Amino acid sequence: MNIKNTISAFTTACKGLLLTLKHFFAIAKKRKSIDVKDDNYFSQQEGVVTVQYPKEKIPVPEVGRYQLHVEIDDCIVCDLCAKICPVDCIEIESIKGTGPLGQTSDGTVKRLHAAKFDIDMAKCLYCGLCTVVCPTECITMTNQYDRSVTQLSELTYKFSEMTPEEAEQKRQELAKQQADKQAAKEAAAKAKEGK
């Protein structure tokens, strides 16, 4: 039984060494780094490819799913992307505007301020559901895949351009407008009762 184990160990080591030698001598044959769409991409079986990153980069497929980006000027703060996200990596806080705030690039009227629009890419599954449900197509997946950071908190991307002070000012403006509307309603009701 002991001799059988020794022979098995020796043959396993020889197989591993032969495979290592095969790859060692294959270095002399270098194959080109070609695009995935190329017809010969899968037919290249011989040789070794070493991509000299960051000088050289692997071609990115057109339908690849990588980092998310939000064009905040086109966002209507509908919250659909945050609702559909299976891991809750999107945090949105909206403040109702006191009137129309402008239009997006596709002509949709904006009525909400984006006080907070954060995406935690450390949690993201790269499923692309958020990009599918966006009515204004302001959230997209870019072709950037090489964002390396030293702190995990740096993977939370903040797309809102509104400071906390500006957000508080917008909340106060909305509260004042609602209070004025309520006072006008009460005055109209009193005037109606007085008739």
Quick tags:
4 helices; single chain; Alpha-Beta Plaits; 3-stranded antiparallel sheet; alpha+beta; 2 domains; 195 residues; two-stranded antiparallel sheet
Can you characterise this structure?
With 195 residues, this protein is α+β, with helices and mostly antiparallel strands. The protein folds into two domains: 1-59, no CATH class; 68-164, Alpha-Beta Plaits, CATH 3.30.70. 34% of the residues lie in helices and 15% in strands. It has helices spanning 2-26, 80-84, 129-133, 164-194; strands at residues 68-70, 90-96, 102-103, 109-110, 112-120, 139-141, 156-158. Strands 2-5-7 form a three-stranded antiparallel β-sheet, covered by helices on one side. It has a two-stranded antiparallel ribbon with strand order 1-6. The longest helix is centred in the C-terminal third of the chain and has 31 residues, at 164-194. The radius of gyration is 29 Å and the shape is elongated. The mean pLDDT is 84.
Show the helix and strand layout.
Blueprint: H1 2-26, E1 68-70, H2 80-84, E2 90-96, E3 102-103, E4 109-110, E5 112-120, H3 129-133, E6 139-141, E7 156-158, H4 164-194
Antiparallel strand pairs: 1-6, 2-5, 3-4, 5-7
The level of helicity is 25-40%
For the sheet with most strands, the description reads: 3 strands, antiparallel
Rg calc: 29 Å
Shape: elongated
- Topology order in helix (H) and strand (E) letters: HEHEEEEHEEH
